[in-house]
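User: We ran a pulldown and think these components assemble together. Before we commit to crystallization trials, I'd like a predicted model of the whole complex to look at. Sequences follow.
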Amino acid sequence: GLKIATIGGGSSYTPELIEGFINYHSELPVREIWLVDIEEGKEKLEIVGNLAKRMVQKAGVPIEIHLTLDRREALKSADFVTTQFRVGLLAARELDERIPLKHGVLGQETNGPGGLFKALRTIPVILEICREMEEFCPNAWLINFTNPAGMVTEAVLRYSNIDKVVGLCNVPIGMEMGVAKLLEVDHKRIRIDFAGLNHMVYGLDVFVDGVSVKDQVISLITDPDKSITMQNIHAIGWEPEFLRALDVFPCPYHNYYYKAGDMLEKELKNFKAGGTRAEIVKKLEAELFELYKNPNLAVKPPQLEKRGGAYYSDAAVRLIHSMYTDKQDIQTVNTMNKGAIASIPFDSAVEVSCIITKNGPKPIAMGDLPIQVRGLVIQMKSFERVAIDAAISGDYGTALLAMTINPLVPSDRIAKVILDEMLESHKKYLPQF
Ligand code: NAD
Ligand code: G6P
Ligand code: MN
Ligand code: MN
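Assistant: Here's a predicted model for the assembly, 433 residues in total across the polymer chains.
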């Protein structure tokens, strides 16, 4: 049987993952799942871990659930290590979203100034985990869900000795599910050629049973009621002529770039009305943990679907299943580019359709991105690479450079104001600065 170690086990998403392992159990013989957390997450780990135990018991599958604060013990001889942790918890996310907003900039906790700081806090921790993996489970695969997933994956690829890493996001699977719903067909008949970066990915083509329906999908989603989005992004709707001319299927995060002013205005309104997404998530999380405490609950509650990470378990367990069985099906993950997308560095992480094998994802060559989207993707990759360099070096100028070249930040002066305030507020989690 397989041993899984899940870092950040106290996450409210854990029941998703457990449900996935239960559903796949006949083909994916998981024997042990070790949920790991830290002192601050102890109570969450206890509550969600006990629910996990009730879930496997009710399902009648022979999976042992272990709860621990000892990461090394959890990693020992693990076959797959999955990560879903948040350095600094939601309090840090609140700062990531609020500080930039005070200065008229969208924080955006994965792509904007917030994403930069989430990377600065997270990269040192993931590299520490990699060093422990070398010692305790050198053959394991690291499946990283921790955001910013693209930058975290690239940091592992370029700055650790762990090569067996895959970054995972639910946006591609969410877009496929969204198209299936829109066209009223089973999601298994939908395939999208994905290329780009995490939260900056495009569907270059969309197929039903191998026949392109891209134009039809693009026309349909110009209707705001039919736009495909995630729970954490309030889509406003696209200008139909713009989207048809763009000629590729954008992801929900593109709202922040192609509708920057509108999204900022909306966020400021939300903020005045009650707070940023972090505050909404705090309430959702409190509600979820109240439910999880109920000793009669032994399944994943539907309320979890209000979180942005819906379909996470499908994505994660489907990936592990295909790697374990050498299925060689196509899934979209974050992996080393290796030339699959021209004009992105060879050793950078990209989010791209891949063939999933026992030896990992093999990216499918997508060639050059269409000229109308190429520049933005390259710009974001420059931002990501500079941000990673800042996370490693702790160099102030490099961090200021990353903040300034982020497309959501209007000037070096505002970048510096935001940077200084964020460095101060997050000091506890930034030992490298
Ligand atoms: P959360 O705030 O509930 O944190 C999860 C757990 O991580 C907590 O129990 C916390 O105590 C623990 N933790 C913090 N620092 C840790 C450390 N150093 N080692 C081990 N555990 C630690 O977070 P969440 O909302 O459940 O999200 C978890 C992560 O997953 C975040 O990074 C989030 O951005 C990411 N996420 C990714 C996607 C995706 O598409 N890839 C989707 C949703 C969420
Ligand atoms: C989206 C993204 C995640 C993101 C999350 C936010 O689906 O893919 O990477 O972090 O949802 O969800 P939340 O409920 O925490 O706002
Ligand atoms: Mn390496
Ligand atoms: Mn994501």
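The first strand starts at residue 2 and ends at 7. That may be worth checking against your pulldown data before setting up trials.

User: Thanks, that helps.
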